[in-house]
Amino acid sequence: MKLTIKVDPDLCIGAASCVTIDPATFLLNEENKVYVLDHGEAPGGQVYERVIEMTEDEKETLILSAQSCPTLAIFIYDEAGEQIYPDM
Ligand code: SF4
């Protein structure tokens, strides 16, 4: 499945729990804001939004990592554009 992952840099406080849980998808930049990777790579540079092809297992890790964010700075959308995290 393809998921869209967005980080709101204004909400991110650099707590890095998302990076600990899902280092293939999140990495901190020099401003201590998390940006989004595609399986450990950053084609196109340090972006706060990316569409990623994921397996069901990878999706579970991603959701756990988003749930770990103390400021709910991570948003996840399905292929239809529906927000799947945080729950609406
Ligand atoms: S857990 Fe949230 S606040 Fe912490 S680095 Fe990740 S997105 Fe930023």
Describe this structure in words.
With 88 residues, this protein is of the alpha+beta class. It has one domain: 2-Layer Sandwich (Alpha-Beta Plaits). Helix content is 19%, strand content 27%. It is built from two helices and six strands, in the order βαβββαββ. A four-stranded antiparallel beta sheet has the order 4-1-5-6. A two-stranded antiparallel ribbon has the order 2-3. A hairpin with a 5-residue loop joins β2 and β3. The two termini are 20 Å apart. The relative contact order is 0.30. The mean pLDDT is 97. It binds iron/sulfur cluster. Iron/sulfur cluster binds next to α1. The site of iron/sulfur cluster (SF4) has 15 residues, from α1.
Explain briefly what this protein structure is:
19% of the residues lie in helices and 27% in strands.
